Predict the structure.
Amino acid sequence: MRHIKRGDGGKVVVRDSPDNWDAVRSARFFGNLQENEVRTMHYLGLAYVVLARRPRLQLKVPLATQNYEDGANWGAGEQGGFALQLVFTCPSNYPLEVPQVEIVEKRNISESLEQALHLEISQTLEQHLGLQMIVPVVSRLQMMLNKEMRRQPTRE
């Protein structure tokens, strides 16, 4: 935004045209949007680890059902509940372009559940293009895992 003084002492504000945006200002703009998403996750109390901020924002987000056990209470090699980690790698112009989302470190996730999770990720990213996408993806996948957990027979 530029300010131009008028002869009578008043100011006229002239907005820059979109053609006047340069790479530095664009990078700063998208960086601010990405930082806002990290802050939102922090304020919502979501667990995350920032793996990188530059050249691209990269986050790792753990998800687990409430009953997830690491095998300590179930017996040798058995586990209860579901757990996974998501790695989000955002392009430089995120959120105008979707991030790459990888499901890593899966625990008790069947192939069919993993396919359903990938489909949910794709749909959520498409629905939120241009907006914050990481928080909605994390929220929806957490709900899917919890719903799937309730469908599972209980172990005795």
